Amino acid sequence: MLALVGSGEYLPVMQEFETGLLHSAISRGKKNAFVQIPTGSSEEGEDRREFWRRRGLEQSDRIGSECIYLPIHEREDAFNPEFVSAVKNAGLIYFSGGNPHHIANVFKGSPLWDAIVQEWESGSSLAGCSAGAMAFGGTIMGIRKSSHSEGLNLLPDIEVIPHYDKMLGWLPDRVASFIARGGADTTLIGIDENTALIYEDGWKVVGAGKAHVLRGVLEIN
Q1: Which one of 3, 31, 74, 178 has the minimum C-beta count within 10 Å?
Q2: CB–CB of 102/75 below 8 Å?
């Protein structure tokens, strides 16, 4: 199962959803293990790194799973064979929020990203929240900076705006420019807070809000 999450990773409001991701993978023979990947917040300092580590552990404890925190902060970390081994047969591999451009720069073309994709293709659930969801696409929208950049191309034809219901109030002109971006042949999806767009035999929405097809075509059941 693949999940693009607008916001809310590791919060109690998303516990049922994240439990479902994990159990879906367990039913396919994966381990009851919850892998945290905090790369998006790596540039925000040690306090924020610890904040996300603790929040993920709290959610893992509520779910009743083993928590595996991988401190992947720099590109060299994505080449660490111990981290590559750590994702083996994990039930849920979860990229949390922060800077999506940094996530892509760290993981692109790395052994760890190859291993994560392989695990997903063999039944692990893979989720990206906010920056994580943005990084999975072919193009990362320049929300925090003026320019766009290349994503990890897991979903090469999709671009994501997370926090969509809040983003309309925060940056309405920027959102409008994203929708009208000239030359774009991708599908642009806005995902509300505490909401996920998941793929398992088709796309569907779970959570408190909606997923909005802002440009292009995506069939959502």
Answers
A1: 74
A2: no
